Amino acid sequence: MSTVETANASNLNGGAQQVLVTETVVSEQAAFEQQQQQQQQKQPTKQELSILTQNCKLLLVVGEWPVMPIGASTRARRIADRLVANAYDIIGLNEVFLKESTAIVKSVLESSGYNVITSIPESLPSMIKFVNSGLLLASRLPIIAHHFESYTQASGMDVFAAKGILVAELENTNNSESTASRIFVAISHLQSEGSDAIMESQFVHAGAVIQKFVLDRVTNDDELRASTVLVFGDMNVIDLKTPHLYESLLKNLSKETVDLYVRANGQEAVPNGGATFPVDNPVQRLDYVFSLTEFEGRPGVKLGGSEVLSAAVDKLIVQDSDIALSDHLGVVAKIALL
């Protein structure tokens, strides 16, 4: 073989080797990418949910609310439209007492795909009760079951309302991609005035109702650990002004109760943040979203089905308007199911 032929053969062999190396690299890269895709597919997708609590002040007053030149029905329509536009996943409303206003909010939400529970209790528990609880629960997730109990103690104007605690289980429609097996929510509007004893009796009552509802439905410890229980509403407790009531509320709702605003923003944020009342100059933190992470009835079983991503004061009531639609701002929390 001549020198030229040897060189050509060498070049051909080198080229073949280079092609082989290139093909090997490409093949390895493809295999790596495929492996990455398979690993990503195996990892559960975190489903995010937004939760709003809002006091709507849709209640009977002498004349119309003095600082509100808009009638209740008009306010109800505007509130409902904003709820839909903001696309919250779970909504808990307080003070939705008036029948016409209730019907408006319910109709708008249901026509937009929400599942709605309202006008509870349907029959008032005594002759002294003139209105129902004023609670409205709306959820984009199906509502599997729910239970309501009226509080047994009240004082002042609250004796005329059937205030209580509503607890429900929501269907985890993303369950195939998430380990969070069960989702429970509870809403309430606690005593607005009166003695500490009456307030604390409602804390105890609410905690007992929630615990029984959840533990009756979740008997397996592993399933309970992967569950989420949220409680929200106008609690009429000012954490900084009445810290003893705030601590009692946390203690009586469950063995371990997490304030999601504090968890998301830090305790140092509370003195200047989180206030929801009054709407024109909010200085009181009355509205809360809590996560219950351990029950007295199942000690040692920590609920870890979700984590809070954010929590903030919600301004739906003053959104796109010079006129506030209620006397409270709301609170919105975002969680991720794990």
From TrEMBL:
Alphabetized Pfam families for the sequence: Exo_endo_phos (PF03372)
N-terminal signal peptide: none
Location of the Endonuclease/exonuclease/phosphatase domain: 74-291
Gene Ontology MF term list: sphingomyelin phosphodiesterase activity
SUPFAM superfamilies in the cross-refs: DNase I-like
Family classification: Belongs to the neutral sphingomyelinase family.
Protein name in UniProt: Endonuclease/exonuclease/phosphatase domain-containing protein
Species annotation: Physocladia obscura
